[in-house]
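Long-time lurker, first post.

We've been arguing in lab meeting about whether NAP would sit comfortably in this protein at all. Half the group thinks yes, half thinks no, and nobody has a model to point at. So I'm putting the question to the forum: if I give you the sequence and the SMILES, can you give me back a predicted structure of the complex? Inputs are below. Any interpretation is welcome too.
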Amino acid sequence: MNILITGTNRGIGFSLTRQLSEKGHTLWAVCRQPSEQLQSLASNANVNIISGVDVTADNAATLIHEALGTTQLDVLIQNAGILTRESIENAAPEAITQQFKVNALAPLTLTIALKKHLTKGSKVALITSRMGSMTDNGSGNYYGYRMSKAALNAAGVSLARDLHGEGIAVALLHPGFVQTDMVNHAGDISADTAAERLIQRIEELNIDNTGTFWHSNGEVLPF
Ligand SMILES: NC(=O)c1ccc[n+]([C@@H]2O[C@H](COP(=O)([O-])OP(=O)(O)OC[C@H]3O[C@@H](n4cnc5c(N)ncnc54)[C@H](OP(=O)(O)O)[C@@H]3O)[C@@H](O)[C@H]2O)c1
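Top reply:
Settle the argument with this. Predicted structure of the protein with NAP, as tokens:
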């Protein structure tokens, strides 16, 4: 299978890239700057790095198109994301806007721009967070992150409806609380475990369950 993933130089995106390449798939690993670990993976013939791509930049889709050529994608994983921590005392609009751009707008615009590389049976996995759930918000704070992931969830459900007729399935996937830079490695599962679970969810995704918001452990989450 041909699989494209954003945010692959570290964290969950790197683990997804490594595990999926070990399964024999052809990977298109999108990043701003490749890390040493990603570069060493790319010595395998089936890992192609597409570097210099800021997902919020106007040229992001063009750079990816140029690298893909006529390649059709079986799976598109929109994983790149950022987290800043706004409180009611300090909810800087700039930080909130930037999270909107990276976490919500970029996955939507890139999915639409890359649609020509998707076909019947292709799958789109949007890596979201349960922090975007209204029902699950028991602790407040994190204004920009919660708002941007809620917006991503809204976009994901619309994409699921709009791509249904073309046989393209869309999942909204919460990885869990994962030991990556994003949370200063304070999570309760490793990036490798999260990636393993996310891959299981993507394998189970189909046109009948499109639009579902899942925890990587298989639990269906409320919006
Ligand atoms: N860790 C958790 O507990 C947790 C929980 C729920 C959801 N998630 C979600 O899981 C996804 C992966 O997070 P992670 O934990 O692996 O975080 P991470 O270790 O901080 O990695 C984030 C990745 O996103 C990339 N990225 C950020 N801004 C970008 C931009 N403008 N253009 C291109 N790439 C950009 C980073 O690349 P650079 O190195 O270039 O910055 C990096 O590869 C995110 O969507 C996150 O919201 C994580």
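For your lab meeting: The radius of gyration is 16 Å. The pocket of NAP is lined by residues 7, 9-13, 31-33, 54-56, 79-82, 102, 127, 129, 174-175, 177-178, 180-183, 187 (CB under 6 Å). Whichever side wins, do check it experimentally.
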